[in-house]
Design a protein that fits this description.
Number of helices: 4
Structural class: mainly alpha
Number of strands: 0
Radius of gyration: 30 Å
Order of helices and strands: HHHH
Shape: elongated
Strand content: under 5%
Largest sheet: none
Amino acid sequence: TKKSEWEERSSTRAKESEAIETAISILAKVTGVRISPPGNPVPPPSPVALLQLGNPRAEQALRILRQEAKAAHSKALERLADDVTERVKHGAGAFDQVVNSIQKMIHLLMNEQTEEDDHKNW
C-alpha cells in the first residue's frame, strides 16, 4: 500500500517535471530566451558601495553618524552628516568647522535634555 502510493507519487512527480521542462523549452523557442547558462559567464560590474574619502577614520565616523541619525530619526544629525561629508571632500582643514558643528550639536542636545528634565520635574 505505502509502496504503491510512493511509486504512484514518484511517477506523477517525474511526469510533472518532464512537462515543466517541455514547457520551458517551448517558451524558450517562442520568446528566444536562452535557458541554459553560458559557458563562460561574466559577472555584472558591482556597484560602488561607498564613496572612498581616502581617510578610513573619517569614513567610519560618517558611517557611525549616519547610523545614529537613522536610529534616532534625527533630521539634525542627518544634516550634520551631510555637512561633514561635504567638508571632508574639501580637505582636512575643514575639520575645524566640523568639530565646531559637533560641539554646537552636543550643546544643543544637552540644552534640550535639561529643558525636558525641568519640564518633567515641574
